């Protein structure tokens, strides 16, 4: 799409989806297209929180294509507000794309979001947390061990930066976890493959003293198929929750993003201190699940994954089981749905399946990362994401579900979840 067409398409979406907040539509489009930065806007970013690459690259180009060292300079998130449409505060994750129609520039001495050559709203960068200049006794920056996202709300602990499905080329096809690890190391970033319980405890001790903004912690990492240092996946990740509960009881809501497990394993996870469980489902269609998630399909199976999600609700409570869908990946150009209606029908079937049982799924916005198996490609059309937001909100209201815990506030001008607009529309 020509850049000059972008604002026309955006305003047409505003007209077509009047019941959706403009903020949510714009947020989804920025996540689709990524963000470009001018040299001046990157210089300003030096005083703010940079991208920590907390798990995946979440960029639309590799580091080697970043001519302005955006991987070191770009902010983690932006806040858009005011401007042409009088937007409420809206938090958006930064996905670097130098050719995006969306760019951050300085105009009249202030940061603005431009669509093509037109400024449309004001921009603020993610403030640097008070503890971010601290270092651990090892010399590692605290941001490497316990990075902050969601405008300070969430500490994201990727304690194992690799996934064993990659060992047999069975990784989820949208995922660049291992490849991102390699590119970050090659670029010279301090990037810890396995974070020890001791260094996580040291980081959290500093944060607990200096920071009052963070309210939740995600503990996650790659799948462990056999063992990691003699430990199963459940045992490995549970030890971090156990330490956090023992040392910092009640300070943070603990969330586990791991594979789907049965009742006994879920009991271990919950007993260790995890309150929220994310057995991410990724894609609903059974045919696409096998293609997009070959490792999960072989080891657990699509039906097995569904069954374990339902079983986990018995342990955590259905409202605390939050499986993620990768919004848009079912429309990948390799073998996905060609029509928006097909993709939406399929994914909404999955939403209905879980929501009708009191389970609260969420979705993140697919980022076609260059080192993922699916490869770089155009994102699904904006229409797909508008339809998904409409149906998501409708199902949420139909089944009278509770607002998801561990994600911060909901609603326009309040939501801090930055990689999709699902919290903005609730």
Elements, N to C (H/E)? HHEHHEEEEEHEEHHEHEHEHHHEHEH
Helix content: 25-40%
Structural class: alpha/beta
Overall body shape: globular
Percent range for β-strand residues: 15-25%
Largest sheet report: 6 strands, mixed
Report strand order across the widest sheet.
Answer: 1-4-5-6-2-3
What distance separates the N and C termini? Answer: 31 Å
Count of helices?
Answer: 14
Radius of gyration: 20 Å
Poorly predicted parts: none
* Quaternary form: single chain
- Please, what is the average pLDDT? 97
Number of strands: 13
Question: How are the elements arranged and paired?
Answer:
Blueprint: H1 3-16, H2 22-33, E1 36-37, H3 39-44, H4 70-73, E2 77-82, E3 87-93, E4 102-107, E5 110-115, E6 118-125, H5 142-145, E7 148-149, E8 154-160, H6 177-186, H7 197-210, E9 216-221, H8 233-247, E10 253-258, H9 263-272, E11 276-279, H10 286-292, H11 294-299, H12 302-316, E12 324-327, H13 340-355, E13 362-365, H14 382-398
Parallel strand pairs: 1-4, 8-9, 9-10, 10-11, 12-13
Antiparallel strand pairs: 2-3, 2-6, 4-5, 5-6, 7-8
Helix pairs in contact: 7-8, 8-9, 9-12, 13-14
Keywords:
five-stranded mixed β-sheet, 13 strands, 426 residues, six-stranded mixed β-sheet, alpha/beta, 16% strand, single chain
């Amino acid at each position: 799409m020509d850049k000059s067409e972008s604002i026309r398409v955006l305003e047409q979406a505003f007209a077509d989806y009047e019941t959706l907040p403009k903020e949510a539509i714009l947020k989804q489009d920025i996540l689709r297209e990524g963000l470009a930065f001018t040299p001046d806007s990157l210089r300003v970013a030096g005083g703010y929180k940079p991208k920590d690459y907390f798990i995946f690259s979440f960029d639309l180009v590799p580091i080697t294509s970043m001519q302005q060292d955006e991987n070191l300079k770009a902010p983690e998130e932006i806040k858009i507000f005011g401007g042409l449409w009088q937007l409420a505060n809206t938090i958006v994750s930064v996905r670097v794309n130098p050719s995006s129609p969306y760019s951050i520039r300085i105009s009249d001495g202030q940061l603005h979001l431009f669509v093509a050559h037109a400024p449309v709203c004001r921009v603020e960068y993610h403030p640097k947390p008070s503890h971010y200049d601290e270092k651990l006794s090892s010399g590692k920056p605290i941001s490497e061990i316990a990075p902050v996202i969601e405008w300070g709300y969430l500490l994201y602990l990727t304690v194992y930066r690799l996934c064993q499905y990659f060992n047999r080329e069975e990784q989820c096809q949208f995922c660049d976890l291992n490849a991102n690890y390699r590119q970050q190391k090659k670029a010279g970033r301090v990037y810890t493959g396995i974070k020890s319980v001791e260094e996580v405890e040291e980081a959290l001790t500093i944060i607990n003293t200096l920071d009052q903004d963070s309210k939740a912690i995600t503990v996650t990492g790659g799948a462990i198929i056999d063992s990691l240092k003699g430990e199963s996946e459940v045992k490995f990740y549970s030890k971090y929750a156990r330490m956090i509960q023992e040392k910092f009881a009640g300070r943070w809501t603990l969330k586990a993003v791991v594979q789907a497990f049965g009742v006994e394993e879920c009991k271990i996870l919950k007993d260790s201190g995890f309150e929220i469980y994310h057995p991410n489902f990724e894609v609903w269609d059974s045919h696409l699940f096998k293609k997009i998630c070959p490792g999960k399909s072989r080891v657990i199976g699509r039906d097995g994954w569904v069954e374990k999600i339902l079983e986990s609700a018995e342990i955590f409570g259905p409202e605390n089981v939050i499986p993620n869908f990768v919004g848009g990946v079912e429309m990948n150009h390799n073998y996905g749905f060609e029509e928006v209606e097909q993709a939406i029908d399929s994914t909404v079937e999955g939403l209905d399946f879980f929501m009708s049982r009191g389970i609260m799924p969420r979705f993140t916005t697919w980022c076609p990362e260059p080192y993922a198996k699916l490869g770089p490609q155009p994102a699904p059309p904006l229409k797909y994401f508008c339809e998904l937001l409409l149906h998501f909100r409708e199902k949420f209201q139909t089944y009278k579900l509770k607002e998801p815990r561990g994600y911060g506030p909901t609603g326009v001008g309040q939501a801090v979840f930055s990689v999709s607009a699902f919290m903005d529309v609730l």
